[in-house]
Amino acid sequence: MKNEKTNSYNESSPKKKKRRVGALWIAPIFLLCATLIVFTVACRPYIDFAFSMARMFLVDERIEYNGETITTAQGEFPSFGEEFGKITIDKIGVVSPIFQGDVEAILSKGAGHFYGSALPGEGSNVVISAHRNTQFTRLGELVPGDVVTLDTTAGKFVYEMQDSVIFPDYDEQYILSTPGEVLTLLTCYPFDFIGAAPDRYIVRCQLISGPENAWGGV
Questions:
Q1: Tell me, what's the pLDDT at 184?
Q2: How many CB atoms lie within 10 A of CB 12?
Q3: Which domain of life is it from (predicted)?
Q4: Of 21, 89, 122, 215, which sits most exposed with the smallest number of CB within 10 A?
Q5: How much is the pTM?
Q6: Rounded to an integer, what distance in angstroms lies between the CA atom of residue 218 and that of residue 199?
């Protein structure tokens, strides 16, 4: 009887060890999967922003054919420095051209579209910036319900002001992609600050109307 019990124990012992080893692997794998899920959800806006920037820089916008420039669906996107529309805000007397890009050379001529944010009608965050001492001097006077219009080469888009936010210049959360379309108007703050202003002032607007698939459905 003792031998039978001993044999039975010896036969089952390796199986128990295998089960223990298997159980030890479950916890790390579960923890890794949970970490990846949390990381993906938390970093989704940054991932979308990176893809948006890659599209702007890596996609060929136009092709040459027999000496003529042929516009493709993706070629409808404005190139850097190109004027592609006009922003109108009747409430504060703004009528300004919109250029692709927001470097100083562009902002000295008008409003600039943040190179990498969505274009009007693309269903995400459309970021338009201008100087606080030129086009956006009176941006702080806008209140919920005021209308902002973007007339672009792809059509007319109408937005309604929702709210405003003041934040430090190093905080980039308001220029990241959004799950739905919003128009973000951005300028330096305080408006009367002398020198390089430490903060930013934005106005967030909701899309009211505009054409669908305006930029080739891309």
A1: 97
A2: 10
A3: Bacteria
A4: 21
A5: 0.65
A6: 34
- 116-174, pLDDT tens digit by residue? 899 999 899 999 999 999 999 999 999 999 999 999 988 999 999 999 999 998 888 88
CA distance 63 to 71: 7
Q: Record the tokens describing residue 30, joined without a space.
A: 């579960």
- Between 54 and 38, the higher pLDDT residue: 38
Closest CA to 174 of 121, 129, 109, 122: 129
Please give the CATH architecture assigned to the domain spanning 82-209.
Beta Barrel (2.40)
- Residue 19: pLDDT over 90: no
Catalytic member of 33, 43, 113, 131: 131
Active-site annotation holds for 33: no
Return d(Cα 146, Cα 89) in angstroms, integer: 8
Q: Which two tokens stand for residue 170?
A: 């190093």
**Domain residue limits, the chain:** 22-56, 82-209
Annotation says 188 is catalytic = yes
How many CA atoms within 13 Å lie on the side-chain side of 175?
22
